[in-house]
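The authors assume throughout that readers already know how a fold can be written as discrete tokens. For illustration, here is how one protein appears when written out as sequence plus structure tokens:
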Amino acid sequence: MTGPPHEATTNPITLPGTPLADAVINLIRPVETPSVFNHSIRSYLFARLVAGRLGLTAGHDYDDDLLFAACAMHDVGLASDGPHSQRFEVEGADRAAAFLIDHGVSAADADQVWQAIALHTSPGIAERRGTLCVLVREGVALDFGGPMGADHLDAVTDEQADTVHAAYPRLEMIRSLTDAIVAQAAENPKNAPRYTIPGEFLRERETYGRTRMEHAFLSSRWGN
């Protein structure tokens, strides 16, 4: 499925350009806010840089199409056209896996993506479920600039970060993403179990007007 590895170090904004990657973009762009869409793409670009830092090679250590699909669709559970009947991580994982199978991806590979999306908010668990889960978790965490526990902030140089952010601006991502998680959580108690990200975000917003994560980002590497 994956072609030659990308020259991520010299062109950090290159996307896979495969039919599957194009189909993923066509799925998420119309149903996510521009801010969440950009976050999803940046998560892939950062995950690929983390892979390089770890000495991992596309086509040998991980499948680049699957990495792109998992990162790009990791917040599709917040999509405007979703049923919003489960916590957003699980809803997104279900939708992504079904989409991949419909596009000819094997059930085993689709399950890898399912796990990576379902566990991307679960530090200490995602890291134990294979390379794809590790890279998705780290790519997402790196786009948060530190407060989510990113271990590889130095995998991205300032020059690379400027290039990525010029192509995919942040657009107040922290507020936009938190708004989407809280709105989805508020629709149904099943969407917001206690001690989960959606559950705690909802309760913190209701109690304090702002989540702890939003406050923490005032001192993150990216600032928002």
